[in-house]
Design goal:
- The two termini are about 30 Å apart.
- Helix 1 packs across helix 2.
- With about 300 residues, this protein is of the alpha+beta class.
Amino acid sequence: MTLTVRDFRPADAKAVADLRRLNLPYLLATPQSIAWEVSTAAAAQRLRLFVAELDGRVAGFVQAQLLHDSSVPGQASATPHVHPEWRGRGIGRALLSSAEEHLSAAGATHVFAWAADEPTAHAFAERRGYRRTRPGRFLRLALAAAALPPLPAGLPPGVRLCTGAELEADPRLLYAADAEATADEPGDVPADAMTYEDWLLRTWEHPLVDLDLTTAVLVDGEVAAFSVAATDGLGRYSSAMTGTRRAFRGRGLARLAKTASLHRARDAGCTEAFTGNDAANGPMLAVNQSLGYRPCAEEWRYVREVAPGR
């Protein structure tokens, strides 16, 4: 069988989305979102989506990109995904080699990747010279039958709930809260250099983001907490980001925002909800568990140092 690793073509979008959903059922993907992420990538990302083609069929893919929203230069990511039927044939190795070569030429010094919490995935990463850093957890909520907490009958003076769509006149209100909360998330690489222009494209205009289900808690006109919602049109809902600005933490506002978003999502016909957290993010894990989310998968972050400029 002939294996070819090449750049993504728009005609690959459905096959890549199908494979991503097969391997990562707790993450949303559609052909439209895959094609959009490639076609709108910022120049600073140096994004390339490599596809492994085996006798004319898409057998795997890897998205290689610089983490340009971090103040730490040289950080990059690349996680190969291979169809279960064709594992063990060198496809993952070929994909990762192509990604590493591209990222090294783009100036990367560290490449981060995720591996499922299973022996074969750990062994693959370690053979390639990657070392384990930290775990991440994915959680699922059977939304159709979930016993969601009720929304409060009233809110304190100056506090109100609104949808993302209601912020269309000034999206910067949501951006300011998102940028602050994201910068404080635990992780290997700080995401603390996200510009408004990039956020507007990557979050606000993302084809999976649902502004009618996205929810913000306003305190005296300022977004104090929020929950960005994503949907795939297949009854699946995902929390793209939930957070609270530093000055408002400890008041249950993130839980309020997410609860309101989940109620709207169920009313809109969503039947499953997914979210993911760094295992060290205790406060958000506690919020999700209180809403009925339960663990459905775990992954480990791995990193490898590479020589830039080759």
